[in-house]
Amino acid sequence: MNPIHPALINLPAPNTTFASDNSAGVHLAALQAIIDANTHHALAYGSDSWTQDVQKRFKELFGAQSESFIVWGGTGANVMALATLLQAGECVVCSDKAHIALDETGAPERALGAKLLTLPTNDGKIRPEQISQLSSLIGVQHHAQPGVLSITQATELGTLYTADEIRALTFEAKKLGMRVHLDGARIANATAALGGTVDTLRDFTVHAGLDVVCFGGTKAGLAFGEAVVYLNPEHARRAKYVHKQVNQLPSKMRFAAAQLSALLDNQLWLTLATHANQMAQRLYHATKDISGVSYPHAPAINGLFPILPRAAIEPLADWCKFWDWDESINQVRWMTAWDTTEQDVDRFAAGVRAILASQS
């Protein structure tokens, strides 16, 4: 580790980092849920009362027609969802910025044995005309057939689809016979940003024509646990078997299910996501006018993507960890989380101001 830069050495560092919401701790409600579920023996593989309870809660969120399955983590959730939607000879269509394309070590390709067809995007969002242009591939035996459209809400760049934008995408996709998957690792942050209600969630999922939603829990404050929620029950029939085949069936599922129930209880998932988003806004307003800091866009959720002088990045990251994003333009990523405090934000902003002032 490098020594602390002189401009920062006398400043108190934040108690949290700005590296990732995955770096955050576990909310006490989730920890207590694990303890409460650890009282006696319970049937394994999802036959326990905690799993049945959280499945009822997901039906309350997404409708009686929905079916939910608990999995370990986000990559596994995506693989399971895509595996149940995809047929032989088909490919998955996604953004060139998608997590499944860039950050899952080829897990979908290896597990599915299928091609990912990436579409160029500047902001991580696919446009309807990009889907309609895929019609030239339909029926050509030398091309993998577009079978599944995968979108991310919120995107890897922190941008958001409106409900109308998702409806437009699903309309074009279904004209081509495609199914639609939503990677919702940060679905709580997206819901909070777009309106902050259960109706907001339903508007861009159930009422937008999606077939399956991956509901993120880990980034929202859990130790582990996500849900794959099938909005179209036809696609849930195979999921029971795919669940274990893709190594996502926890034997002691109650400990993941109990956490998810705690997250859904009294809309804790929205409360925590709203806080994380607010901390991102606080950091944005505290740093946007500092000389040397520029933002391509204001944060929509809990991620910021500022551009800094190259000489400021390493000493600042040594003092309080965050990651490079696009080194070619000196862009970094700052992520707030459910446990980021106002003090953390204010201390970090003071550090940004100090390091840039020392280099001016």
TrEMBL record:
Domain of life: Bacteria
Domain Aromatic amino acid beta-eliminating lyase/threonine aldolase: 18-294
UniProt xrefs under InterPro entries: ArAA_b-elim_lyase/Thr_aldolase, PyrdxlP-dep_Trfase, PyrdxlP-dep_Trfase_major, PyrdxlP-dep_Trfase_small
A molecular function GO annotation: lyase activity
Family named by the database record: Belongs to the threonine aldolase family.
Assembly and binders: Homotetramer.
Record's protein name: Threonine aldolase
Species, as recorded: Formosimonas limnophila
